[in-house]
């Protein structure tokens, strides 16, 4: 490539709608949990593309699946079905509580389908009056107007005119508040089994169980948004298994495609029967390429050795982070589950999670934040143990440079 053709970060500000503020470096290649930028600088990836690259970059099973499918057929629309979609749906129903699957292209779209299904079920069974959706503050469900309105951060949903109505936000983990508010007008309660974007907040013991019971008492559906927690992230294939609480509807995306865009809504036969031909749809949903990759990913992440490996890696992260903290005392706690971990900044370091992220970048380590006070780690579920060690060493150096 000649110099004039070199793609530069500055182009972003010239030609992209300024919704993001990307890092200065541009990644051009990835293998496993290592990434290289345009200058050939190497990074260890503890971010995993925000809980997406569950098998790391360019894992051979994904490369094989997409290459094989790319030489067969790419797209047919939902006027026809296709083999990868049917196989993937079959596997998802075999591996979970669900009997039926609706494919979408993202987490937001999977949630959009979930919320529409819940509203429709309630309207058909009980009438239009039963339409309230209860969600939780700091929750995140995507950026379409309906899903961002259900999400618990008005900063993301304000400023776009009138919002979809009848959405209530309560405090996560406040069973009494839910008990006091839920009624026969409630059509669904939606929760993340562990809040991701909201700062890596686990449910208190019994919270999910209490939500389930209150939903049953009031004929409301329980929707688990497992877009971030699902697909092995917590050490269970889906986090609901670990909680011992089965939702009526589950949304998944992110790691489902391991880096190829796909989302899915999972539900029961009974609920699915409220959707008929034409009720909902998507041009790309269930696309053969996406489903072929997701099938290969699902085969890999549902293996007991992969899921057990998540818990082994969690221990390495927790031990390493504790050791770093014993030197620099900047974290108040390490929280989360599996490889969805957050290091919360202590009193003295409030608001400075992003400083850790920036310093890590300089040392060749990619991490994430979740809000202003939590450094988030969502690496590949199969990240090499040596990469964890080396990444933690880089994090140590990064923190040393800012204390
Ligand atoms: C990322 C995320 C979404 C949105 O997914 P997109 O693919 O960005 O639309 C929804 N819910 C949760 C819990 C998420 O973490």
From TrEMBL:
Q: Which residues, by range, are in coiled-coil regions?
A: none
Q: What biological-process GO terms show up in the record?
A: L-arginine biosynthetic process
List where the protein spans the membrane.
Answer: none
Pathway given in the UniProt record? Amino-acid biosynthesis; L-arginine biosynthesis; N(2)-acetyl-L-ornithine from L-glutamate: step 4/4
Q: Which Pfam families did the record assign?
A: Aminotran_3 (PF00202)
Give the first-level EC class, as a single word. transferase
The terms under GO molecular function for this entry are: identical protein binding; N2-acetyl-L-ornithine:2-oxoglutarate 5-aminotransferase activity; pyridoxal phosphate binding
Which Enzyme Commission number(s) are on file for it?
2.6.1.11
Gene3D superfamilies to which the protein is assigned, alphabetical:
Aspartate Aminotransferase, domain 1, Type I PLP-dependent aspartate aminotransferase-like (Major domain)
- Chain residues that bind pyridoxal 5'-phosphate: 107-108, 140, 225-228, 283
Q: Please write the reaction equations for the catalytic activity of this protein.
A: N(2)-acetyl-L-ornithine + 2-oxoglutarate = N-acetyl-L-glutamate 5-semialdehyde + L-glutamate
Residues modified to N6-(pyridoxal phosphate)lysine? 254
Fill in the misc note. Answer: May also have succinyldiaminopimelate aminotransferase activity, thus carrying out the corresponding step in lysine biosynthesis.
The record's annotation in PANTHER family points to: AMINOTRANSFERASE CLASS III (PTHR11986), SUCCINYLORNITHINE TRANSAMINASE (PTHR11986:SF113)
Protein family according to the UniProt entry = Belongs to the class-III pyridoxal-phosphate-dependent aminotransferase family. ArgD subfamily.
This protein is called what?
A: Acetylornithine aminotransferase
- The gene coding this protein: argD
